[in-house]
Amino acid sequence: MNRSSSVFISRLRGLPVLDAAGDQVGKVRDVVIQMRTQGRAPRVRGLVVELFARRRIFVPMPRVHAIDAQQVMISGTVDTRVFSRRDAETLVVDDLFDRTFPREGAQVSIFDVAMSPVRSHDWEISEVALVPGGSRFSSLRKKAAGSVVVDWNEVPGLVMMRQQSTERTVAEMQDMKPADVARELHDMAPSRRAAVAKALDDDQLADAIEELPEDEQVSLISILDPERAADILEEMDPDDAADLVQDLPEPLAERLLARMRPEDAEDVRNLLVYEDFTAGAMMTPEPVVVGPDATVADALAKVRNEDITPALASMVFVCRPPLDTPSGRFLGIAHVQRLLREPPSSMVSSMLDTDLEPLATDTPVGAVSRYFAIYNLVVAPVVNVENELVGAVTVDDLLDHLLPADWRGDQMDGHLMEVARG
User: Would you put residue 76 in left (φ > 0), alpha (ψ -120 to 50) or beta?
Assistant: First the structure.
């Protein structure tokens, strides 16, 4: 861990938070952390930012672009919904500052907490500043009394305790793959499953729900409060979210769609108009798209985005503006493997695969599977009647529609593992 880049949270508090345009959106008020097991340092989930209207919102660490002594820079869209702490979360300032505990025969209190980056957009609690005394007193008196800096694991409040059942379970799930989290949820009693689901991060719960059988997806999303359920649908892949919404009772589906961000709800609604088991119904509306003037360097920068799945990252679609789906006229595709062999300044449009015809939105699943087999693909373009790119089908989307309807249930019960072992 790079201690030289540690940031003490008392110095972070109150710093202005600027968006990508350099405009101030608010000030840092607290830092949200989550305990982890197996001797691992607490993970920093994000910042609590107070807007000018005194509304407090949550900014996840992947949105934090840079931190220095004068400001915090963030990127992407700011979610202005009021911050609400989850059961498994701890606020550093509100919960840890001034907390007292015995150490070496005397009472000490927490004066400050430091966080350090461990990789891109991933921070952990690293050190804690302690001062003598067992009661609250002013910062000036604390500073005058002198402090000692210790590793995070020397502070009892930062070490996962076994009696914290839900919090401990969530911590143990932090590094699990989505299918493994889904299997854990599947095996829990309903009340236990509900408690754990409510404490999980939005992105982790969304990924796990995608791996559950359809009836369990419906059951789990239905027990969440509508605002949280809408957040989960926003985090899911649009095609998976559309499949889930289609299985919900219509009044609940409309209620959740109304609470989603307009652009996310529009993606889901657009997918719902296609017939089941067609390319349109199984596609994702968020493929990698570039314009005809894009260079190889431009295209490769897009596929490096860690949020893009390996299947989607294998192909770049070239279209006339606009580049959001539905795009302008679809021009063709470029295989990323080919781009990797070309100079960065070369034009992507000069290396299009002209032999690959796009799928139509009404192409049935059987024809889609033959198309994938003929061209040895893991992703394929889908266009509408105006030859505009509307999405892409990936091989995992295709498998979801080819496998038996109950295959996820078999996976949860371990049947697929038995088959795999022979």
Answer: left
